[in-house]
Amino acid sequence: MGRLEINMNANLNKHITTAFIYAGLNLTAFGQTASLEERIQSLENKLANQPSFTAGPAGVRITSADKSYQLRLDGVIQTDARFYLDGDSSANDGFLLRRVRPTIRGTVGEKGSFRITPEFGSDDFTLQDAWLGYSFSPAFGVKIGKFKAPFGLERLQSANWIRFAERGHPTSLAPNRDIGIQFEGKASVVDWALLVSNGTQDGGRVTGNTDDKFDLTGRVFVNAAPGLHVGLAGNVGETEGSLRSYRTPGQQTAASYLSERDGPNGGTLPGTVGDGSHWRLSPQFTYYTGAFGLLGEYVVVNREVSNGANSAELENTAWQIATSYVLTGEKNGFGGVYPSQPFDPANGQWGAFEVALRYHVLDLDDATFPVYANPSRAVSDIETVGVGLNWYLTRNLKTSLTYEVSTFDGGASGGADRPDEEILFARFQFAY
Fold first, then answer.
1. Beta partners for 428?
2. CA 231 from chain center: how many Å?
3. How far apart are CA 358 and CA 171, in angstroms?
4. pLDDT of amino acid 261
5. Phi-psi region of 329 (alpha: psi -120 to 50; beta: other; left: phi over 0)
6. Of the candidates 329, 335, 317, the residue with the CA atom closest to the CA atom of residue 354
7. d(CA 96, CA 236)
């Protein structure tokens, strides 16, 4: 009996000891598990508060953890070849870097933004864009610095997505980049902008204010129906000083105003200058539905000029109608075409193909000749027909061909018509 009690006590003690050991192990394991979970949670919290870095088809981006700050690097490189098929000895075939534009832009806080875009193409350096913006709401914001004036429709389209190698004749009359302060916004179906700026010449951009005058530019663009946008842009100001020349699609000088020059008996003859007020007006529209796209704009410029004792109001006009169709069925749009099947021959994918047609005209006021321009050197009218083929290999890679034929009124010796210009553009573009 005593032995049985001893054995029972021994077994009970053994079981109690084992229970305590297991309990101790479980408590230790629980403590270690809790510590590991806390460490994981702490690491996740730290990672959540770190900025993110992404690189892809849309460029390189660094974004703060709360998404309110972002730094973005993107840009475009366009390499062109130009072939003048008319044999015009004044123009040379060749290759050129049409645009080399890295861009730094971003957001500051929830409402601030900025952009800096230098230009290294055409063996030249210029500052294309440099501005700061603040958006109080989607319907009202402000932008100050250098940027595209809110006027020309095709001018406002990114150079990455124009359907032809060069923009049409209306862009020759529209202001390019200006320096000033712009109020802008989007309310419901209406985009609007109002700019107070130094003012630019036709097709020109500025680096400062050379004439101590200011321009006022406004634009309203309305989504009038599905796929259809219509707009009206206007500009008023004053111009003092020399005036820019106008170019052919092949970027050759087509018309220049008379400059100061040597006259008889050792004297000088005056040149044509802007001498007073000017105004511009441009109705415009776009229509995109499925693979089809249509763009149209008209620009009229009225400008006071003088040449010595002579003065006049000259009114120049330009217009274009351009259509495009994506043969592979992708959606067409003002902001470009993205191939649904990026170029991958091994898998039978070839990207997206688009054809485009355009007719555009530049008409200079008949009163320009011969007092303000020489009809033997400056054309009075250009009519151009163009066809384009665009191949979008990927979202970032595009190659294109543009063929354009221009006919002229005047511009040759004795006031005869300048020979036609036939030009073939080939372009390879990398945009990211």
1. 79, 399
2. 18
3. 14
4. 82
5. left
6. 329
7. 36
Amino acid at 151: F
Whole-number Cα distances in Å, 53 to 15, 58, 67, 73, 229: 59, 13, 12, 12, 36
| Closest CA relative to residue 227, chosen from 339, 334, 323, 338 | 334
pLDDT in tens, 87-114: 655 788 999 999 999 999 999 988 999 9
Single-letter amino acid code for the residue at 123 = D
Residue 28 has pLDDT above 70, yes or no: no
20 pLDDT more than 50: no
Tens digit of each residue's pLDDT (9 = 90 or more) over 178-189: 999 999 999 999
- pTM, two decimals, is 0.86
- Model confidence pLDDT, tens digit, residues 317-357: 999 999 999 999 999 999 999 999 999 999 999 999 999 99
Query: DSSP letter at 123?
Result: T
In the block, tokens 């949670």 appear at 41
Count other C-beta atoms under 10 Å from residue 71's C-beta: 17
Helix, strand or coil, per DSSP, at residue 366: helix
Please enumerate in sequence order all residues whose Cβ is within 8 A of that of 7, keeping only pairs 6 or more positions apart, or say none: none
Determine the Cα–Cα distance for residues 172 and 203; give it in Å rounded to an integer: 5
Contact 194, 218 (CB under 8 A): yes
* pLDDT for 22: 47
DSSP label at residue 171: H
d(CA 230, CA 19): 84
H or E segment to which residue 3 belongs: helix 2-48
Of 324, 179, 171, nearest to 233 by C-alpha is: 171
3-state SS, residue 403: strand
Q: Are 178 and 155 in contact (CB under 8 A)?
A: no
Place of tokens 């230009």: 119
β-bridge pairing 246-247 and 253-255: antiparallel
What is the chain's mean pLDDT, rounded?
90
Percent of the chain that is helix, strand, coil (3-state, to 5): 15, 55, 30
